[in-house]
Amino acid sequence: MESTEIRKKVLIVDDEPNVRRLSHTILAKTFDVIEAEDGRQAIDMAIAQKPDVILMDIMMPKMDGLTACHVIKKDPATKAIPVVMVTAIGFELNIKLSQQMGATGYVTKPFSPQDLVGKITEVLANRPVVSMSEQL
Q1: Is the CATH code 3.40.50.2300 the one for domain 9-114?
Q2: Confidence band (pLDDT; 50, 70, 90) for 25?
């Protein structure tokens, strides 16, 4: 018997192919996964694909994750998408900046598969339900 539950879509944004590959492998068991390699691509994919949650690295070329998060949160079409910042630098300042830019959560590299899936599950469980009229 097949499940009729719709899988949630996760956008992984990281300039390191190995990190994207690892995250994809961990998350693909539970979620539909799409990827971007920088902040500019993340914004374009957030608009086009409407993921349920975005995992965003902070330090990336072209556009860093904090700037991309800020742009995504200011756009009415994407502002409801939760953004979880993922970085190797776990400084308190990064956490505060992430929150100021609209990030919903924070995960520090290296992370365990349980940490990553747990954070996404927690963020999705706490995501407010948006009506169709609010999405338009």
Answers
A1: yes
A2: very high
Residue 63 is encoded by which pair of tokens?
């556009």
What is the per-residue pLDDT for 28?
A: 96
Biggest CA–CA distance in the chain, Å, is 49
Domain extent listing, the chain: 9-114
> Residue 21 half-sphere exposure, CB side, CA atoms within 13 Å?
3
Q: What does the DSSP assignment read for 8-68?
A: PEEEEE-S-HHHHHHHHHHHTTTSEEEEESSHHHHHHHHHHH--SEEEEESS-SSS-HHHH
Q: What is the pLDDT of residues 67-103, one digit of tens each?
A: 999 999 999 999 999 999 887 776 666 666 666 777 8
pLDDT band for position 31 (cuts 50, 70, 90):
very high
Q: Is the pLDDT of residue 128 over 70?
A: no
Compute the distance between CA of residue 13 and CA of residue 71 in angstroms, rounded to an integer: 14
Measured distance CA(42)–CA(69) in Å, rounded: 9
